[in-house]
Design brief:
alpha/beta, Rossmann fold, GMP Synthetase, Chain A, domain 3, 3 domains, 9-stranded antiparallel beta sheet, 5-stranded parallel beta sheet, 21 helices
């Protein structure tokens, strides 16, 4: 089969028709909205969950690995546990001023506690596990604890979280599924689940409105201190209706997910976690992630489960593809009932798209549709969705039903702003200053992201992500460098050795890059063991040769300074979460990385480059 000359058809999925209305305003801004209206949606997440229980009580809901098997909970079983836990929470008098904080990662008990909070009308705040286990100073745990003043703090096991619990649980009840640290005054999670529900629970459920706070989701953004986005029940249920309205195929067969995306992020915790409930589907909790030694766990899980729709970030696809490409049987299991591949959190490089597409064709004889969307924590998360077939990465979709999108000129770009029932009305918890500055005079959320039309004459073709406004910069020649677009292209050009990179050169004559290596890819290039330390790989002659050659080949195809790379430095480490260089999903914070890597940037542009700099021009 010649994949380049004649691509086979897509596996057919039922996407909603695209129909976008465009209004050009006198001030130069553009308003886009879907022509169809948003259907009615559940008033609360409790109602959404209970509807799933009624629809499919015996259906498997949540599953997590226990040894070689799975701990499984059906919807009916989950309902009984949720009611009991919710009753226990109500007895404790918790509230928005004394919410529940969850320190540990995705797990069945974590999920049950989250839904119980949603039934009791008590906000829950899932916190990045990295803030507890990877941070050296626990500064973000301290800040979040002071901001929220939690009344109850949960961890799956006190052992790994003992230091974080000493801070977060100092003035709160500590609840744990396991107390391996033998801490005093720890309430066993099972004790909550033994509480007998009373009429107070039904009163609590019935009193929840669309404006009741469901979650505080923390996003670092461009600062070192996380912001607590106020996510209401109505925001989250409205977004679920937008998703299903865009992808009607989801309701045509039972949904099966196998997902690692962290629940403290809006992608995993709001989009995926709630989608399973909206469709009375099954969620297998994947204990893997895109990291050495953990990607193998993900491959084991997704090939055993065979998901019907698969969600991941580009770094996740990069991590699992090598194993699927070399093992046909694993690939067949992964694609056996896969209807759609979804990526978000960052742009998907062309080479990853092509490898995924070719693997699907070689395995099934057809292309599996690949789609994406755009949104933020503040938009719970999706505001744009791609519900049409695409031949490559680029378009991030069209406005969801019920969402108004405003495109505002900013220099030579268009900033995307959104307004709708999925967008936070209340902004950031106890940060009125940030709330005021992030919304414009018409109530649109100012995202700071730039977009452009795929086809200016046809809004139905969707929008294309055009980088972060705050990341783009000018060279001394006055030439603008489009950081987002260039970053994705360079990662693809240096494949498979580069995981991510920072584009440098503001106020300089030329562009330089600081590159983090992809451990597996760089080891393959070098012909060494995958466990080889990054510091060694960064100095390996074959890795340096590969990236030097890749950048020179890239430069040969460029015509201007805005895309040519003069120098590069290979970093011997990984991005720091303490320094806010990276999020759990793998999104690089360009500004924070530049500030932290000031010495490397100076070396990059030194008049006489040292031996660690790759000269690419």
């Amino acid at each position: 089969m010649n994949l380049q000359n004649a691509k086979p058809p897509f596996r057919a999925v039922n996407f909603a028709p695209v129909a976008v209305e465009r209004t050009d305003r006198p001030d130069g801004s553009v308003i886009l909205r879907a022509r169809a209206a948003l259907p009615a949606y559940d008033p609360s997440l409790a109602a959404l969950f209970r509807r799933a229980v009624e629809k499919a009580p015996s259906q498997l809901y949540l599953a997590e690995r226990v040894g070689d098997g799975w701990r499984k909970v059906t919807y009916e079983e989950a309902r009984q546990l949720v009611d009991s836990i919710a009753a226990a929470l109500l007895e404790r008098g918790l509230s928005a001023e004394r919410p529940v904080v969850i320190l540990s990662g995705n797990a069945v008990d974590h999920g049950l506690l989250t839904i119980a909070c949603e039934h009791a009308g008590i906000p829950v705040a899932p916190i990045s596990v990295a803030y507890s286990l990877q941070s050296t100073d626990l500064a973000k745990i301290k800040y979040i604890t002071e901001l929220l003043n939690p009344g109850l703090v949960y961890a799956a096991d006190t052992g790994p979280f003992a230091k974080a619990l000493a801070i977060a649980g100092a003035n709160a009840e500590i609840v744990a599924s396991k107390n391996s640290a033998n801490l005093d005054n720890v309430t066993p999670f099972d004790q909550l689940a033994q509480t007998k529900p009373t009429a107070a629970l039904e009163r609590a459920v019935s009193s929840i409105t669309k404006d009741t706070i469901a979650k505080f989701l923390f996003t670092s953004g461009s600062t070192n201190l996380p912001k607590g986005v106020i996510s209401t029940h109505g925001m989250l249920t409205a977004n679920q209706e937008m998703i299903v309205s865009s992808w009607p195929y989801l309701e045509e067969s039972p949904l099966v997910l196998c997902d690692w995306l962290p629940w403290n992020h809006t992608f995993g915790g709001s989009f995926c976690f709630n989608l399973a409930q909206r469709l009375a589907g099954t969620m297998y909790i994947d204990g893997g992630k895109p990291a050495p030694g953990l990607a193998e766990i993900t491959v084991k899980n997704i090939t055993e489960v065979s998901p019907t729709t698969y969600f991941n970030v580009p770094a996740g696809y990069s991590a699992i593809l090598p194993q699927l490409e070399k093992d046909t049987e694993l690939a067949k299991k992964f694609f056996s009932r896969l209807q759609m591949i979804f990526y978000a959190g960052a742009s998907l490089p062309n080479d990853l798209w092509e490898r995924l597409e070719n693997l699907a064709i070689e395995t099934t004889g057809a292309r599996v549709p690949m789609t994406t969307a755009w949104g933020t924590t503040e938009t719970s998360p999706l505001s744009l969705m791609q519900h049409f077939y695409a031949d490559g990465p680029g378009a991030i979709g069209v406005p969801c039903l019920g969402v108004e999108t405003k495109l505002v000129p900013s220099g030579n770009k268009l900033e995307i702003r959104v307004r709708g029932p999925n967008v936070t009305r209340f902004g950031y918890w106890k940060r009125e200053d940030q709330t005021k500055t992030n919304f414009d005079e018409d109530g649109f959320y100012k995202s700071g992201d730039a977009v452009r039309f795929a086809d200016p004459a046809d809004p139905d073709k969707g929008l294309i992500f055009d980088g972060r406004l705050a990341e783009d910069f000018k060279l001394t020649s006055g030439t603008w460098v489009q950081v987002g677009t260039l970053r994705v292209a360079l990662i693809a050009a240096c494949s498979p050795a580069v995981q991510d990179l920072v584009i440098c050169g503001e106020g300089r004559e030329h562009i330089g890059v600081l590159a983090w290596l992809n451990a597996a890819g760089a080891a393959k290039v070098a012909g060494v063991e995958p466990s080889t330390p990054l510091a060694e790989l960064a100095q390996h002659p074959k890795v340096i040769e590969h990236i030097t050659g890749s950048l020179k080949k890239w430069n040969a195809a460029q015509s201007g300074l805005s895309t040519k790379v003069a120098r590069a430095i290979l970093l011997p480490d990984t991005p720091s979460i303490d320094a806010n260089e990276i999020t759990d999903k793998g999104y690089i914070n360009q500004r924070a990385a530049l500030e932290r890597r000031e010495l490397e940037v100076d070396r990059l542009f030194a008049k006489n480059a040292d031996s660690t700099a790759i000269i690419a021009n």
